[in-house]
Amino acid sequence: MKQFRSTVIRAGLGALYFSGAHHLLRPIFSGVGAIFTLHHVRPPRDGVFQPNRHLEVTPEFLRAMLAHLHAHGIDVVTLDEVHQRLVERNFSRRFACFTFDDGYRDNREFALPVMREFDAPLTLFVASDFAQGSGRLWWIALEMAIAKAERIEVTIDGVACRFDTVTASAKQAVFDRLHDWLRNLSEHDLQHEVGALCVHHGVDQTAICRELCMSWDELRSFADNPLVTIGAHSITHCNLAQQSEAVAKGELAIGRARIEAALHRPVVHLAYPYGDRNAAGAREFALAAACGYKTAVTTRPGMVFPESAAHLTALPRVSLNGNYQDARILPVLTSGAATAMWNGFRRVDAA
Ligand SMILES: [Zn+2]
Fold first, then answer.
1. 106 C-alpha to center of ligand 1: Å?
2. CA of residue 28 to ligand 1 center, whole Å
3. Do the Cβ atoms of 252 and 291 come closer than 8 Å?
């Protein structure tokens, strides 16, 4: 299913590009700006089995996007500026805003130098447990367990399942199957199942966290760069919509307080973990506003429109997806045509 959707999206982006339809759609769907979602930025890696590859782009692709925006006179702005332009209804110039989720060290190594070339600001959304070194990046742990294993055994809905994971294509299929299964479990069950796989296949989740994520010390010097804004991304990176209201509120308020205490600066922007409609809905949008966040971003695909000013804690973003790193799609992404297609041509999706 994922592969199918992926193929359709790629065909759709290609079709939009070659038909030139994105030029026709631009006046209606380009909105006033876009907030881009990125995760890892690093050089491409060898190896066929890279199931999380959609979460990384190369420094060259990031540079191509920034050059494209620069060539088209689009301002690259901070989230504070996005907030201000929306509230003041200042839409004389189009904007783009770059946000990086989770707090990966490669953002410092590879993204910041490219952003600097363009004097372009960025926001880094930090999950406090990740900075603490105790976070659970279960999607990476799952990848590593399957990469090592020749066979995976799990019990799904009471049925003992045994999957062959010898070839790269078998590994990919099992990753997709298990990822979909895990995403629908409670946070407790998800961590329990991934924890068991890690023990069985010798994967150390704490080591993954420490290898990939910046520590508080590293974040302190990263945050001192004037181009950098630090935002919050919860404590544990759980699916907030699955939590009780008290727990969800704690994730939003305590996560933020920990970042503020560790980095000695106010934190006023939030990215919901996962951020899709299964992980962030009306209750979370209200909680974020009640916690005092100026803006909160989802991963619901969309451009920013003037109407978004009424939904500052439910802002859509455009993902820079590692599976589509082709310079030809840059004008499609910035035209809004791709996200408009995805949304059935609705402009605002904040319910
Ligand atoms: Zn995240």
1. 15
2. 30
3. yes
The secondary element (H helix, E strand) that includes residue 228 is strand 228-232
- Measured between alpha carbons, how far is 318 from 83 in angstroms, rounded to an integer? 17
How many residues are given for the chain?
Answer: 351
E strand or H helix at 159, and its extent?
strand 159-164
pLDDT in tens, 235-250: 999 999 999 999 999 9
Closest-CA residue to 331 (of 64, 117, 82) = 64
* Of 213-222, 283-292, 342-351, the least confident: 342-351
CA of 90 to the centre of ligand 1 (A): 30
What distance in angstroms lies between residue 182's CA and the mean position of ligand 1's atoms? 16
What does DSSP assign to residue 301? Answer: E
Ligand 1 mean position to 34 CA, how many Å? 19
Q: Radius of gyration of the chain from Cα atoms?
A: 20
Q: What spacing in Å lies between the alpha carbon of 102 and ligand 1's midpoint?
A: 5
Mean pLDDT taken over the chain = 90
